[in-house]
TrEMBL record:
Record lineage: Eukaryota, Fungi, Dikarya, Basidiomycota, Agaricomycotina
Protein name (Swiss-Prot/TrEMBL): D-4,5 unsaturated-glucuronyl hydrolase-like protein
């Protein structure tokens, strides 16, 4: 009888493997609440990464590219409250919404002036979440439109991209693969305002990135330098990777997500194909231990640091790609199933290795920037994409939040 009780739920998920149970642990609300309470009220600092030894959050001022991830995680917990009411511990839905709103309020002063360059897209995430809750919220509408117009102002029609990083020589126009993630704010603002120029900028940027960052084998350069006067590519190289010709895993993960998201927003086949090629490279270059290295080409000796954040971004990118395969008509069932399985495999192996109950972060073994010797930490965007992965899996029916509790087992079998 007991054997039967355990086997039946496995059958329910058809052949897709079960995600790791930590995904819905009550340690998640406990830790996130404790992190929010480190900066009560409207925060003047935000967590970015932890110390290496004790896993304690290090706090940064709001004018930092990672600021939006913690408030966006609080909004993701609000979403989770509706999806998984039993995984909230002693917290409530209303509390997470209140925390998300209060936390994101500390970003508002950045609207008229910031030095975030292309990263205005990342800091807009919590306001995009707010619009999902309250589409009429004028504070969030203004934030999205202002950040989008900041990014649009960095577009060069000669180069065909938005400029990622400013440089001492203004004719050196630097674009990084990460910039793909910041295009979402253009689509959200285009929806709000009806301004199609924002969509055209995003499409142009993605097309150029597809041509000049993504290599023939689906791998990617971190940085491409264009000449802003001529539009010509003058260098293809790395900043955070192992070498100029290597593939930095987080960049590759941003690319999978970014191109899948382009297909979701615009529906162009070439962007779907690019997401598939980047996904294939990532999956085919996973080492046998299932641990995502900080750079796919970094040597094994001395042991190369992992990047759990790259693993979490890739997980979400693959889940988004699976949704795009599913959205085709007829749906690409084989493709969707393959990407879902690969996403769950990366998620499971990473969680098994790096779930860290004793740290303030959820996961350990993130690499912020290895050339700057910043590795082996918890990272706020790793944790954000971990929580998001749980929500996405529940929404697509691939996980049940309370799967591992007895009451849920009964529910699955008899419910
Ligand atoms: C609108 O959103 C902002 C921050 O995003 C929040 O502070 C505010 O409480 C929200 N207002 C309403 C009416 O929902
Ligand atoms: C559309 O957005 C672009 C880029 O921000 C801006 O230059 C243009 O003025 C906007 N058009 C309208 C009609 O607001
Ligand atoms: C870009 O091209 C212009 C015109 O040829 C040249 O003057 C400038 O030095 C170039 N910039 C870079 C960064 O190569
Ligand atoms: C834009 O609006 C359309 C139609 O309502 C919606 O399907 C889409 O998700 C929206 N996109 C964004 C990025 O908000
Ligand atoms: C990339 O190439 C430049 C120019 O040759 C060089 O200075 C730099 O050290 C290289 N970067 C790496 C990580 O090898
Ligand atoms: C389904 O997805 C797989 C993986 O991306 C791809 O190789 C295949 O061509 C897709 N099939 C169709 C009909 O689009
Ligand atoms: C993870 O980090 C710990 C230190 O916090 C380190 O000892 C361990 O080797 C790392 N594991 C991997 C697989 O990189
Ligand atoms: C990780 O960072 C430490 C310093 O914090 C550095 O000494 C070490 O070389 C880095 N690890 C590798 C394998 O690059």
């Amino acid at each position: 009888m007991f054997a039967l009780l355990f086997l039946l739920p496995l059958a329910v998920t058809a052949f897709t493997p079960l995600p790791p149970p930590q995904l819905f642990s009550t340690l998640i609300p406990q830790k996130l609440l404790a992190t929010a309470q480190l900066t009560p009220g409207i925060p003047s600092t935000y967590p970015q990464y932890t110390t290496r030894d004790t896993g304690a959050w290090l706090q940064f001022g709001p004018n930092t590219w990672t600021t939006g991830f913690f408030p966006a995680t609080l909004y993701a917990m609000y979403e989770r409250a509706a999806l998984c009411p039993k995984s909230l511990g002693r917290t409530s839905a209303a509390q997470w919404l209140e925390l998300g709103r209060t936390s994101s309020t500390g970003e508002i002063f950045l609207e008229p002036h910031n030095t975030l360059q292309h990263d205005v897209g990342f800091v807009s995430f919590p306001f995009v979440e707010e619009l999902g809750v309250n589409p009429q919220n004028t504070t969030a509408i203004t934030a999205v439109n202002m950040f989008a117009s900041d990014l649009a102002a960095r577009f060069s029609p000669i180069v065909g991209c938005t400029r990622s990083w400013d440089s001492a020589d203004p004719t050196d126009f630097q674009v990084i693969i990460d910039n793909m993630m910041n295009l979402e704010v253009l689509f959200v603002s285009a929806n709000l305002t009806g301004n199609d120029t924002l969509r055209q900028i995003a499409i142009s940027h993605a097309d150029k990135t597809m041509q000049n960052h993504v290599r023939a084998d689906g791998s990617s350069f971190h940085v491409v330098d264009y000449n802003s006067t001529t539009g010509i590519v003058i260098d293809q190289r790395t900043s955070q990777g192992y070498s100029n010709s290597s593939t930095w895993s987080r960049g590759q993960a941003w690319g999978i997500y970014g191109f899948a998201n382009m297909y979701k927003n615009v529906g162009l086949q070439r962007h779907l194909d690019t997401a598939r090629r980047m996904a294939a490279y990532f999956i085919d270059h996973m080492p046998s231990d299932g641990i995502v290295p900080w750079d796919f080409n970094a040597p094994l000796d001395p042991p190369r640091p992992a990047d759990s954040s790259a693993a979490m971004i890739a997980t979400n990118g693959l889940l988004l790609l699976a949704q795009q395969e599913q959205s085709l008509s007829p749906p690409n069932i084989t493709g969707a199933k393959y990407y879902n399985e690969q996403a769950i495999k990366i998620l499971t192996d990473t969680t098994f290795a790096f779930w860290k109950p004793q740290w303030q972060s959820l996961l350990s073994n993130g690499t912020v920037n290895n050339p700057q010797l910043n590795n082996l930490t918890g990272i706020v965007y790793g944790d954000y994409y971990f929580v998001r992965a749980g929500n996405e899996l529940v929404k697509s029916g691939l996980a049940k939040c309370d799967f591992f509790t007895f009451s849920n087992l009964i529910d699955v079998i008899f419910g």
